[in-house]
Amino acid sequence: xxxxxxxxxxxxxxxxxxxxxxxxxxxxxxxxxxxxxxFLICPDNTIHRALPHVxxxxxxxxxxxxEVVAERAVxxxxxxxxxxxxxxxxxxxxxxxxxxxxGLTYMRPGRAERDEINRIIMEELVYGEFKPDATxxxxxxxxxxxxxxxxxxxxxCTEIPLLMNDSNSPLPTxxxxxxxxxxxxxxxxxxxxxx
Length: 195
Prior knowledge:
alpha/beta
């Protein structure tokens, strides 16, 4: 496991510097490859936006969080996914591309909702603040997506499952971090060589 400081990533995000984000990811990838890793994962949805700057130069292959989630959505029989996450993620094609390749559709929150969700994530959740108003906001936003035809919601940020889950969401949830962890475990066990 390796990561650069959260602040280094946020500085790149604020500058819209995806190559810079990719360079940070490559720094971690290089260290992990030298440590004996066989493949790489990143539980942060947002920085997957930089993978196009990384994959061809990476010393190891990456499991892509959105690919894993989209595949799980297909397995569970979902057809239209609501997307939640930071504004950098929701404004990107990180999720839409793998979702549509599998014949599914998706819905992004409206602009004002994206901004408020981003504020909740970056000003509250990353600081360990879990406010009832934030949960209610997510519930209303997800409820609107349900009314518009979504049959599941992607919890596309590591921190969102600290507020939302199947027990309090108007839609079934796809917890991206958990799905990636499960996929990584399956891959690692599949790589295990019998002794």
